[in-house]
Amino acid sequence: MIITAAIVLTLLLFVLLAVGVWVPLALIGTATAGLLFFTDAPMGQVLATSIWGASAKWSLAALPLFIWMGEILLRSRISSDLFTGILPWVSRIPGRLIHINILGSGVFAAVSGSSAATCATIGKISLPELKARGYSESLAIGTLAASGTLGLLLPPSVILIVYGVAVEESITRLFIAGILPGLMMIAIFMAYVALWSLFNPKKTPPAEPKTSFTEKLSQTKYLIPVAFLMVAVIGSIYAGIASPTDAAAVGVLFSLIFLNP
What we know:
This protein has 13 helices and no strands. It is an all-alpha fold and 261 residues long. The chain folds into two domains: 2-56; 59-258, no CATH class.
């Protein structure tokens, strides 16, 4: 009976997905069919209890707050500030300005937690600038698409919040676990770009004019609001001062006040 039910419900789920039913509705439909045909439980009470139990959790409140913060950052000047602050530090290494896509995406992912907002924010300014300077369009788009996924891994990842609630795991511990893999991904992406540039020197524009260390430090001032936001959000979680939900609320407030959306 159990094997039969599993096979039938799995096939039903695949059929619903194949005909274009949205994933949430396909899952609800499959669950409803399972309750109707394979159990004697009261369907209405079970569904109501399960849906309420899965959604009525305080930790889930961090989800819309981080999404809101990402939308605020998307409409702020943070993308141009990231470009300005990172530009002097990458203009002389192999790959040059392509690294802005990677580093910018990593930094933005660490303050927004959203891959979609990361791609939109960084790509909005970097792609036109890179194209105007003669960089390979395929490499620019490829690095943006790859590094944009860092929002799924680097805290405060909204995906980790959903996963933590689903499996009843500490969201703070999941955030801590995502740091090292996220930094490794950034290093791997940058290493690939550097190697590609060394083997394809003709596809890389000439180096930017050399800037002094003082000028680099002067440009770095544009990263201060971003760094403060990272410390306020991520630092407060790791220090145990605030929960992910509280930190998200602080991040939204800071973004509204200081980043001029």
